[in-house]
Design goal:
Oligomer: heterodimer
Largest interface: A-B, 19 and 21 residues
Number of helices of chain B: 7
Radius of gyration of chain A: 27 Å
Shape of chain B: globular
Helix content of chain A: over 70%
Largest sheet of chain A: none
Number of helices of chain A: 11
Structural class of chain B: alpha/beta
Largest sheet of chain B: 6 strands, mixed
Distance between the termini of chain A: 45 Å
Helix content of chain B: 25-40%
Structural class of chain A: mainly alpha
Order of helices and strands of chain A: HHHHHHHHHHH
Number of strands of chain A: 0
């Protein structure tokens, strides 16, 4: 059989190889590519500043920003601003997330909650939450409460939407399977719907972490003595651009850290995917 | 325990799907339901298993289920319906979690079900790591764990390749051999119906009505013998002649839709 195949190949005639057409469309990121690109940009930025191509007032060098962060750290101001922001983000995010998860599940599981909830969410979600800060100050006073409430509101809507979308996305066949074994409602919610909705919920956490960061900075810029947003605004008013960018870098690092934590949670909780 | 389809009719809005379907599945009996595409086979099974409320008529039970049965009517699903975040043994244990059983009793049932389906070595594996055939074995194992009186099988082999189908069919024959467990087996595959069923309910095109109930004139153990092959083939031809024209019409209807 093999001999015959070999004979047929050897039979003659000009052969040409079939062109490979299956390349591309499989983007894979290299492990160090991003870091190398980042280091390259920082190096060019530093060089441009050092040789005087760029005015330090308009764009301070990375070294100047690092020095500004160091000065902030040893003076204690960094922790003062950072802790104020973290407290607002932490409390606001937790409150908004807790309420969003409860309302999202209610909308996902109850016909009445869905009819009422989706109408309200559709009406209120598009409103920029920071626009409500003056009203919240009027209601809650000028302390921490209105800033926390602004963050909680922003987080709440995104969380509720991602939770009920996640509940909707749980395959119905799994729910029917559980019902066919007479599994009680609460157990179906705990053991089928919750894990099934978790990927969407964690994806929602990524979004709400960014929303919380955005809102804390905005709220602190409008009315706060301490906090990264207040610090950035103050630095901008005093034309201390190295300090301004130090604040921006701190925000970026915070965002990255939150992303890493959520990534770790996804790896731990969604290992089955 | 007998399962009775009593004058079951069902409509989805204006679309009549089933029309006055009545038959009985006796204790330990295997009844296959065949018919053209869209004749309401799966709908009928959902109604029989209490997952769908019929427009009229009702599924009924006669007699008591076996004393140790935890879920007398138990489904085996076409798409397996496994929890992807749970391991094989967690999937099999899932329907036992809300029962009165202790952890040791649950463990014993899971071990037994895994052993009967050849999954003992795969207990810690997740569904995504398994082939289609193995996933369906997990579905069967989960069904066996609750000691059903009647298995409700909705095209359990249709998502599998032919070799895996053959292997699982042998498993079904073995599991149903002692007559302790009955089954309603929905399929479009007449060979599967002829190999497994004691009786074959042939449904008409939508709205599904019973066209004929065909009794398979030999025991399941006899069907493995060479002499039985011709008889089974003749039986399949007989059933195919009943549904062929309607199957063609149904196919055209689907294409037009």
């Amino acid at each position: 059989m093999l001999d015959r195949a070999a004979t047929e190949i050897a039979k003659g005639g000009v052969t040409r190889r079939v062109r490979f057409r299956g390349a591309g469309f499989v983007p894979a990121s290299s492990r160090y590519g991003g870091w190398i690109a980042l280091a390259l940009v920082i190096a060019i930025w530093q060089a441009a500043g050092s040789i005087g191509l760029v005015n330090a007032l308009f764009l301070p060098t990375p070294a100047a920003i690092v020095r500004a962060i160091y000065r902030l750290a040893i003076s204690g101001a960094l922790w003062q601003h950072l802790s104020a922001s973290l407290l607002r983000i932490g409390v606001g995010w937790l409150l908004g997330t807790a309420a969003g998860v409860v309302v999202g599940f209610a909308i996902g599981l109850s016909r009445m909650a869905r009819s009422v909830g989706i109408t309200f969410i559709s009406a209120l979600f598009p409103i920029p939450k920071i626009a409500l800060l003056p009203l919240l100050i009027l209601w809650l006073g000028i302390g921490e409460e209105p800033k926390i409430a602004t963050i909680a509101l922003g987080v709440f809507f995104s969380t509720a939407i991602s939770v009920y979308s996640g509940v909707d996305a749980v395959p119905r066949n799994l729910i029917r399977m559980a019902q066919s074994f007479n599994v009680p409602f609460a157990t179906i919610v705990r053991r089928v719907i919750w894990p099934g909705a978790l990927p969407a919920i964690l994806a929602g956490f990524r979004i709400t972490a960014s929303v919380a960061l955005l809102l804390v900075v905005s709220a602190e810029m409008i009315g706060a003595q301490y906090g990264i947003g207040a610090f950035v605004l103050q630095a901008g008013n005093l034309m201390q651009t190295d300090q301004l960018l130090a604040g921006v870098v701190i925000l970026s690092v915070f965002g990255l850290a939150v992303g890493k934590v959520i990534g770790w949670l996804e790896t731990r909780l969604l290992h089955w995917r | 325990m007998d399962l009775i389809a009593s004058h079951i009719s069902h409509r989805f809005g204006d679309l009549a799907v089933l029309d006055d379907v009545s038959f009985t599945v006796g204790a330990g009996e295997v009844v296959a339901i065949v018919g053209p595409s869209g004749c309401g086979k799966s709908t009928l099974l959902s109604i029989l298993g209490g997952l769908l409320q019929p427009t009229s008529g009702a599924p009924e039970l006669r007699g008591a289920p076996p004393a140790d049965s935890l879920n007398p009517l138990t489904f085996v699903f076409q798409d397996f319906a496994l929890l992807p975040w749970a391991s094989v043994e967690e999937n099999v244990e899932f329907p036992l979690l809300h029962t009165h059983l202790s952890a040791t009793q649950r463990r014993a049932l899971v071990d037994d079900a895994l052993r009967r389906t050849g999954l003992t070595d795969f207990r810690k594996t997740y569904p995504k790591q398994l082939s289609g055939g193995m996933r369906q074995r997990v579905g069967i194992s989960r069904a066996l764990a609750v000691k059903p009186a009647i298995l409700l099988m909705d095209e359990p082999l249709s998502a599998l390749d032919s070799q895996t189908r053959e292997l699982l069919m042998e498993d079904f024959v073995r599991l149903l051999a002692d007559g302790g467990m009955g089954a309603v087996y929905v399929t479009h595959n007449l060979e599967e119906a002829a190999r497994l069923a004691d009786r074959i309910v042939v449904l008409s095109r939508r709205p599904g009505r019973i066209r004929e109930v065909v009794t398979v004139p030999m025991t399941r153990s006899e069907r493995g013998e060479a002499a039985a092959r011709e008889k089974l083939l003749a039986l399949q031809t007989q059933i195919w002649s009943l549904i062929r024209n309607e199957a063609i019409d149904a196919e055209r209807e689907v294409q037009h839709a």
